[in-house]
């Protein structure tokens, strides 16, 4: 027992250097621990070196450069943190793709519209303009009914629409119809309007069947005998024009 207490007192009285120089005293050890603690910060510690910088809500997520053309988009975000930044980046890339898509769509539509306009203008210039009701002879009637080509022969029969009115000079309904056809010919200038005395075109046609209309549309030909019935006896410009549009599919 005496030996134990003797050794204990000796260990207590030994210099710190003899103990390996690890600590000088209990107070020094405590100070060292506090110093080390001060140097180590938790990730969650808002005062540590990993503290996230405050986000400026006025500038965060907005593009740093302007876009010329296209539709303007107001891209903004209030997301923070790594996941928020990633989501904002993906959303920003989607907006950029939409900007490019809008520019491509606008350019394509402008080019397509210009091309279609040019095609329609070329087609209009290539079509023959008639613009009048032509009173024809039997020889002209044969030529027209055998081929619906234009006056200059520059168009094929499939390109020309034509109406031939078989009339009688003393028939009142025929006179009214010719008057309206003369007006329509000035309006529908790409349609060939012609009129011939019925007996000169076909001797078998009866007076009571008049007026008779021959309709040529593309390669199709139709003979309409009941013109007065289809017009309900109203030979007005509106009724005749609607009838012509229906027959030619205009």
Automatic annotation (TrEMBL):
Residues 102-245 form the Phosducin domain. PANTHER family: PHOSDUCIN-LIKE PROTEIN (PTHR46052). InterPro entries: Phosducin-like_reg, Phosducin_thioredoxin-like_dom, Thioredoxin-like_sf. It comes from Phytophthora kernoviae. Belongs to the phosducin family. It comes from the Eukaryota. Residues 28-37 have a biased composition (Acidic residues). Residues 1-20 have a biased composition (Basic and acidic residues). Residues 1-82 are annotated as: Disordered. This is Phosducin domain-containing protein.
């Amino acid at each position: 027992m005496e030996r134990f207490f003797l050794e204990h007192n000796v260990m207590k009285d030994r210099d710190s250097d003899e103990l390996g120089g690890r600590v000088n005293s209990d107070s020094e050890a405590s100070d060292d621990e506090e110093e080390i603690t001060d140097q180590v910060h938790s990730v969650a510690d808002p005062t540590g070196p990993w503290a996230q910088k405050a986000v400026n809500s006025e500038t965060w997520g907005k593009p740093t450069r302007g876009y010329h053309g296209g539709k303007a988009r107001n891209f903004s975000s209030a997301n923070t943190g790594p996941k928020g930044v990633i989501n904002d980046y993906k959303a920003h890339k989607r907006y950029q793709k939409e900007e490019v898509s809008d520019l491509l769509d606008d350019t394509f539509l402008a080019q397509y519209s210009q091309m279609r306009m040019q095609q329609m203008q070329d087609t209009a210039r290539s079509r023959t303009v008639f613009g009048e009701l032509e009173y024809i002879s039997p020889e002209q009637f044969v030529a027209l009914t055998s081929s619906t080509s234009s006056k200059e022969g520059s168009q094929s029969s499939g390109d020309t629409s034509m109406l031939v009115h078989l009339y009688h000079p003393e028939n009142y309904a025929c006179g009214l119809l010719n008057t309206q056809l003369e007006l329509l010919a000035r309006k529908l200038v790409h349609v060939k309007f012609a009129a011939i005395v019925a007996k000169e075109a076909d001797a078998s046609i009866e007076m009571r069947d008049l007026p008779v209309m021959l309709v040529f549309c593309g390669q199709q030909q139709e003979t309409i005998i009941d013109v007065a019935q289809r017009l309900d006896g109203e030979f007005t410009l509106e009724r005749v024009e609607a009838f012509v549009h229906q027959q030619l599919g205009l």
